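Okay, any thoughts on this one?
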Amino acid sequence: MVQREDLLTPDNDVVAPPREGARAPLMWSQEMYWYAYHLPLPVVDSAKIQLTVPLPDPGLAEDVVLDAVRRLMTRHEALRTLYPTDPTGTPYQLVVDRFDDPVPLRRRGNEPEDVEAVFHDLFLSPMDQATELPVRVGCTLNGERVATLVLLLNHISADAASLPLLRADLKRYLGLPDGQPPTAPEPAGATATQPATVARQQRSGTRDSAQLKALRYCRGVLESAPGVQFPRFRTVSVVDPANGIESHYRRVSLQSSQLFAAFRRMREGTDFSVPAQISAAFTMAVAALSGNPRTVVKMNLSNRFREVRDSVGCFFQEALVSVDPLPGATVHELMAATKKRIFVGARHAQYSYLAFRDLKAEVESERGRTVRLGTILNCSDQFATRLAKPNVPEGTPEIRPRLLKNLECLWRDEYTDLCLKSFAADGEVVLDLVAHRSVIEQDEIERMLVGMERFLIALSEEPHLADATVTEVVERFGFPVASYGEEWVHVDHSWVDTAKLARVIRSVAGVGAASVGLVERPSGEPALVARLVADPSIRAEVEAHVLAVAREELDVMCPHAYVWCDALPDADASPPAEDGEPAGTGTPAEAGSGSDRPGAEARDRAFAAAVSLALRGAPVDLDSCYVRQGGTAVMAPAVVRRLDRLGYTGPTPDDLLGPWPLRVVAGLCVPGRDEAAG
């Protein structure tokens, strides 16, 4: 991340909170959550994680519980850290020494629904990472005593590996069994390595070489990734603007004691770990569902380096893993490749997220399309321990019927297509899938999870199944399979609807007719070619229009080449748009060509003034994209804030970092208040 020294603006609206404390840069791993906080979809909010501690009957006095929480926050710097932004637009950590005790949210009763209600009430109010300490406290009451303690943590301050450490400390402070002795003296900041210390090390230059290698690896993945794994993805606001924010995702959990038993049988007789087997099964399922043999997943590996293994903070980073479940590949070949690529991805999972976000914008500009990385896989690293010492009586664990449960998912953003979390507990393997509603239907989720379970069980019983091909596995175990019409083509590792793309191009003023198809390049690779009845001088307008539409319609992309014609053969003429089908003439198209609308000139001036902050005052070319003019991810939120001060809302940091001309982003601006300035 480049450190900025110049002020954004004399009347800067981003100031540090009036707190005293130690300052440090953000860790690379925290940058992702800082950036995501500035993406208002549908509200500006932080990712949050939950820690629930049931207390033994008859409960504990509230002052005892709150004192334990204070001691916990005093012990761990991450729990008393704010994340403001300085006048240059750069975020930093502010570790405060003096703080007010969190005010607990109380609820009488201690049934499961009471605990869930406390969690909901803590969760639903947005969490401001710049001004609010990253801990919220709730409790259920048994009479006047606390029965269950619920902590809600800002994810920028704690990851999943922090939870066992926090739980053990809490139990010790509360005088409960299983409380672990301290790993370091009690004074503030004395426990293990702190996030602020790690951040300073990362900025010291000692890790530059490793980060450059990691970013080179990421570039290779981004250059060959599908533009989008699931081209039919649509945001809920596009599919149904009236939909509530709690209905973006479906979540289904499969619990299988039979799969647990299968993994126990295999743990001594296979070269592949349980995470590698689950990963291979998941990539096969994703490839079948998307119709794309190249699958790029983000893996939530714990990948905590040694010095922070016993620290509280958000240290993990996502590893990019690219796997090709080709139809003719065997299960053994796929598992071997998956094992290797997970290892390579994990080795390259330490880098500045903001530097990665700049790299991603650069690659998207070169490819002429966005790259959506929406598939996530989270395999527990505790499978070996759980299988060796299951929480069941000695001997063969009880085999119970498979259980499928529909669960709630409160995710507010829409940056995920599919997210599979897998772990073992109480003699069962759990496959927990969160899926966006536009990507997969309810019955398909169940078929995918059951198919994966059946395949992994069969693999433990039929060693020769390792010689089966991906196609044979998909067919035998009933994975849901994608189907595309004859107008769809697979190019640049992506599916493209050529009929829709032709209609989008035809909607540009000056285009009389258009058709889109594939031709073979001299290298043998296919290229997407558009034939147009139009003047070649309007190519820039055509590309800007296509990119504007592609913000929402992920099944279109800019052609690789254009052929300008006087006329098209009748067989190649584009058919008219069908009723109800996007033709490229709605809001996205208007965004790219709205200079003749009332107020557009003032809007463009305000937008250019806001963007110039990120370009050190340099002139802004609205016909070029943000990244090609030197715009960066760390400055994008400041541009959006400044635009709001000038009276306009609409664009997000992601809109700025897209491959489209800035004029497209300017077209998204709408007056935010009456005093909109020019």
